[in-house]
Every structure is written in structure tokens, then in C-alpha cells.
Here is the input.
Amino acid sequence: MNYAALVVPDFSLHAVRRSDASLAGRPLGIVAGEGRTAVVRAVSPEATGVEPGLAVTLAMARCPALVLRPRDPTAETEAGCMVIAAALTLSPRVEHTGAGWCTVDLQGADEARTLVTLRLRLGELAAAGIPVRAGIAGTPLLAALAARSTETVCVVRAAAEFLRPLPLAWAEPTAAHAEILAGWGVRTMGDLTALPKGEVGQRLGPAGAALWERAAGETTRPLKLVEPKKSFAAAWAYDPPVESLEPLLFLLRRYAERVALELRAAGFVAEKLALTLLLEDETDHRREFRLPEPGADVDGWQRILHAHLETLKTAARVVGVRLVATPARPPEKQDGLFETGLRDPAVFWESLARVGALVGDDRVGTPVVAATHRADAFVLTKPAEAVPEPEPAPVHAARGLVLRRFRPAWPVHVHCDGARPVEIVGGQLGGDVCAASGPWRSEGEWWTAAAWAVELWQVELAAGGLYQLARTADGWCVEGVFD
Amino acid sequence: MPGSASTLSALRSLLAARFPEKNRRPAGCVPTGVAAVDEALGGGLPVGRLTEVVSAVASSGGQTLLTRLIEETRVARRRIALVDGADGFAPESVSADALRHLVWVRGQDLVQALASADVLVRDGNFAVVVVDLRGCDERALRKTPSATWHRLHRATEAGATAVLVQSTGALVPAVPCRLILGRAHALASRRVERGELAAQLAVEVARGHAGLLADGVEAQAG
Here is the structure.
């Protein structure tokens, strides 16, 4: 088991289909040529009665619902990148052999583990709209033939037995050689290799000897390796521009699948996603999503992006999108034996990420009060994995109702009798003060440019309600209600 | 009329079969630490149910109830999420240790708050999700489609989380239990210990009743 080949049959067809949501379930054909010479190159199984090579007019006559599309180089490049990324999760030595065809050097890899990974990747690719067949064998050519001979995964352990029944056309003889060999009654690779190699070489020349070697599975070659990705980004355009969520999310998922696979192939996860929407009026909308739990799970990404996009209204239609993932090493941790952890950590971090996408990453978390006397000073931190044992209750119990803040504070005019507030006049709150308590003065950071000083009053309005008034250099404001 | 009685009985059976969650008793409750509220609810906030607490007047104790709930769940080492629609929570009003199990969502508008609540209620890691809509735009609150509340109801019933909605007027349609805090406190209350204040909160049951919730409900241990 030295090489694996990943081959996508009808690659151009699948590439086009996965790039357009409207093609799902419809009979689709890829057309080549123009005018009267146009023929169908590949067809989906839904197009009953249509076969590759059929003239377009005839194909339309046989299947009136047939949707015909030309090849889409952008979609093929994207689908090809998916296959390469999947191949790179098997081994770092990967060759992009052709359109929808990768060859992987598996020398030194553990067979059982490789097969498990391979089947996982094939499942993921199939879910992403790219059905891949895989062959594993001793040479790149044998692996490719094995992939061609199966619907799923084929492992070749005995090359001669495997090759013997295969049609000779799979060894790619020249047209002249194919005609001569057909005249000799040679139909399969086994028929050819039954003849002595020297005799075949004498009659058909060096090309004939090379054909014999291919039919015997003796041909091998060095791979032209691709360079693994170092940046993890995808960018695409919409033509025509889109103005609804579904087409945006459809392609976003397709490209996110590729980026996630490339991350995993490189042994990374994403700690941050940056989304840029390019708009028709030549402006853009940018948003960064910090993932509370770094990961490369496309479903999780999709839910976070969806949560943000479904509440977003842009000034113009979207003409293009760019998605960039910031790579990070996967977190490694071990939970404590007696900790009361999360019931479902994956769901928890994903929920936080989705809420972060809605309200902003900096507006979700566990509050930690800052070590200062300045009012309303706190930071939001990442919630703990486990809730620790509570500390003993404070010796001095808190008194009075709890303050509910108005952010920002409500500016008001306050009439005073001496220093004591007696009436509040403001747009959001006003009335006579029937009782007041204060002032409580505090100041801090006078040694810096951020010096602050405030005078606080607790007041009860005649109409009801306890409020906290603050007087600073800027004037009076209502900081909140005691509730 | 025996015919109509049997039809009614059949209709009830049909409804019970179609909406079994409506007849299901709460799977437990989460004590709030406020005696009057726990008593009215038959032990605490029912799990898998929405409970609405209306702060009908200013300074009636809604925020005190919230902080008591945060402290109570901290003692039980259970997670609580606060979806703060108007961003009014003051972390310094609670001891630093009492915040370590809290996830605070600082909303900027009603749409964000309700969408965040929808996500967190479905999460399953929280014992309680508090949706504080006091201070949100009143007109926007009144225009909230009933489908939004229905969706929140369904999400709550499907999970094991107690959901508390705090408002300044009755908001949630078909809520199983609605309590009203209707007595404003005077300035003199600032000298009273908070635990004592919480014990004195005047709670009126506007919808649902203790008997309905008390049957078969046991407070969940941490």
C-alpha cells in the first residue's frame, strides 16, 4: 500500500452542481462546443435517456427538463481544492494529477488508520457534493485504475489478478496500437501481458513495450507534490448580486467546507473567522467572529455566521464575499476529577459563539469587576469550564435594593436646596424629590490623564422610585434605579 | 347531552395526544432565594417552563430578585445566563465570587435579546436563563409577534432549563405563571439587609397558582 488515488467521476458536472443550489435534484448536463457541434460531455443520473456524446438537440428531445451548463473553471478549482485538502489529511505528499484527481504518497502510513481516515473524508466530500472514488495500490497508475474500477474504495493487494480482467483501453494504447491489438484478439490487459514483453516491443516499438508495462502494473513515477496551504481563506463573487440569505449561505457553506478541510489537513483549527461582504455600492461590511472554543467544524461556523447574517441589513446587494480563518493549534486539556463541568461543552461554546455573532463578541461572557473604585468598571471574560466551589459569604451582608444601571446614564437638570437635590428635570425622568441621601464623593486616578471624580446621591421621587444621581464635572445624570 | 360530552372528551384526548408537553408537570424547580416567589411558584422557577415576573412599579425589587437568583444558583453550582435586553445589570452589586457561574449577554436591542434567548434556552447547559426586558423599547415589546413567544415556549418545554422573563408589564402570552411585584420601596430600605428586603418583597400571582406547580415538583439539588 504505497499510493492512493482519489478520483471524482464526472468532475465538471459535480463541480457545477455544488456551486448552484437551484440545480439540486434536476437533470443536468455539461455541454461542450457551440452551435450544431455542441455535444453533452457529462450527464447526471436524473437525465434519463441522455448519454455522454449525444448532440445537444437530441439530448433535449430525449429529456426536455435537461438543464445544460458549460464547464465552470471557478467551481472546478474550488472542488479541486476540496479534494486536495482531503488528500492532505492522509499524507503531506500529494500530487494534483488532473481535474478531480489526486495521487497521495502513503509510504510509511499505517494502513488501518489511513483507511479509517480515508472513509471519513470520502463521507465528508460526498456530503459536500463531491463523490470521490479511491484506489490504494503499489504504484500511482495502479491506484488510479483501482479508483476507476470501484464505486467506493478499492485496495489492490495482488496487482496481476486485479489487472488481468480490465479492458485494454484503460492502459491507454494509441489508436494505431489499439487497432493492431484488436486484430490480434487482445481485449484485456491480461491478454496483453500473456504475450512476451520482448516480442510485443519488437513488433510495436518502445510505445508498445511501455503499454505492456502499464498493463502489467510495472510503471511507476515520482509525484509532483503540491505545497500545503499556509493561509486559510476563500473569496468568491456573485453574478448577479444577491439580496437574500439563502444563496449567500449556500456558497458560504461550500467555501467554508474547503477552508475547514484545509485547516484540518494542516493540523490547525480556527480561532477567529473574518467575514467581508463586498457590496454593490462599492462599500463593504466586515465582521470578525472570535470562536470561544477554537474548532474546524463547518456546522458550528455556519450557525455562527447564520446568526449574524440573518439580522444583518446591508445598504446594497452583495457582489462578493471573503472568508478568512485565523489558524490556531487545537486546545488540549484535561478536566479535574471532581469538577462540575459542562453537560455538553461543544454546544455551550457554540451557543456562546452564536450569541457573540448576534450581540458582538465583546458583549458576552462572565463579568469580573475591576480592582478600582471607579463605578461600572468591569471586564467580560471567557466563562469557566467548571463552576468552582463557592467561597464563604461576605462577613458584612449587602444592604438596600440593587442598582439597575441606565447605560448610558440619563442626563438631567437637578434643582438643589443647598447641596441637596429637590427636583429632577429631564426627558426620561423628572419629578420632585421627597427624600435624598448623600452625598458620597469619590475620586481616583488623579495621577493620570483618566482622572475621575463623582458625587453620588440616592433619591426617592414623590411619584415613587429610588434612583442614583451622579454629579460630575459634566453635570448631573441619573445612573440607574434601585430595584 | 351524552353525545356532546363524549365529543368533548374525545377532543380533550386528541389535544392531550397532540400536545403532550402541555400536560406534562415540571421536572423540578430552581429556588430563587426569595421566599415569597418560591412560595408562589411551589418551590422555585419551574424547569421546562416560562415564568414571567412583572415589575409593575419602579423599585419594586425585580433586580433584587435577579441578584438573589444569581447568588442562589452560585451556591448550588449551577449555570445561569442573563440576557440583559437593556444592558442594565451592574456586576458590582454582587460579590465577585457570585458571578463565576454567570454568562451575561449585554443586549443592545430587543431583537438581539430575543434571538440570544432563543439560542441559550436550547443550549441545555444552563439551569436558568433570565431574559430581562425591562428598559427595552416599549413599542417594540408590544409589537413582538406572538410566534416569537410561542417559539420560546416550545424551546423551553423541550429542554431542562427554567426560563424567567422580567418585564415592566404583562408581555408573554399564555405564560404558565406570571408574578407581579407591585410595591415600591422607600429610601429607608437602603439600610435594610438585602436578604431581609428580599424576604419582604410583595408578590402577587397574576396567572397560574401554587397548587398547579406544587404537585409533584421537588427542588432540584445542585
User: Anything to note?
Assistant: DSSP finds twelve helices and 20 strands in chain A. Residues 93 and 322 of chain A are 28 Å apart (CA to CA). Chain A touches chain B through 60 residues (CB under 8 Å). The mean pLDDT of chain A is 89.
